[in-house]
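Predict the assembly for these two chains.
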Amino acid sequence: MITTANIKNGVNVDQLVETINHVQQDPSLAKFEFRAKNNWIDGGHCVTSIQDFYGVGQEHPVRKDNFTMEADHVEVLLGQDQAPNPAEIVLHALGSCLTGAMAYHAAANGIEIEGMESRLNGDVDLHGFLGLDPEVRKGFNGITVKFKVKSDASEEQLRALSQFSPVFDIITNPTPVTIEFEK
Amino acid sequence: MITTANIKNGVNVDQLVETINHVQQDPSLAKFEFRAKNNWIDGGHCVTSIQDFYGVGQEHPVRKDNFTMEADHVEVLLGQDQAPNPAEIVLHALGSCLTGAMAYHAAANGIEIEGMESRLNGDVDLHGFLGLDPEVRKGFNGITVKFKVKSDASEEQLRALSQFSPVFDIITNPTPVTIEFEK
């Protein structure tokens, strides 16, 4: 007997349903911890390594690849522009997360998506970062995401799917960050 | 006459002071817009291109490099693990931004930093993303950053420097995100 995997939008729907069933049977499987290690090079230039994580009840010490990502600043902000800057990296995380969330939740709901692309922009007033005006925030005043989605789904449906994005939640709602300094 | 650039922590302090003076003379120079273009591959696999930005009163259409970054999901979350996932990319953005902000603001304050590294972790309960419990948030419940900084500065000073980080602000405070769907 030949069986065909039930793939929609690049997502294995059978495995997705199985994952949901497992989590419903054992809620502790839903606990994940993601990790990163950042090393300063100089100025605004850094390199981050991504490797291990915890999830579905166990440690995952190795990954397919030892992922490294750099960050730097643009030259007009005194960097050497050797990599995207942290604000641009936030846009990368948000665009990827919204897109992935839509692909997964569309698959779970039987909605086919043929293509997706998005343009993101975020505006900043440097009076905040430079410490020139404490009333001006240091981060983005706002982010706009313009999606082009090739699908029969309505705009309302697509918008509902996008709301499952974890990074959309992290950015639009306050997320506590604890900073510790070790000797 | 030989002049030596005033470099501290990899930051050109003379240029930093000059930048602050320019912004104080013409506040419009402080307006920046960063941009990203995201293309879906399949499932949770995406690629982001970073190129142009607006800042110091003009468009900057080209960069040193045409930066591209990928995102994917880990295999237990039905991805192919070809790149870090969006939640890990948020940790990369935060670690890099805190570190860069500390290097820049330390330089501006005459504080020397010899080395910095940090370990970041963020915990997620998948009941949120999977839509199993509307009371559980989809993003990180919290992020912890553990810094090791080689410097004579006190912990209190380092903490104050870190608070200038734009990504720290984006994550800890609500940042409005507008999503538009175009035909």
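Chain A touches chain B through 127 residues (CB under 8 Å). Helices of chain A lie at 13-25, 86-108, 155-162, 166-172.
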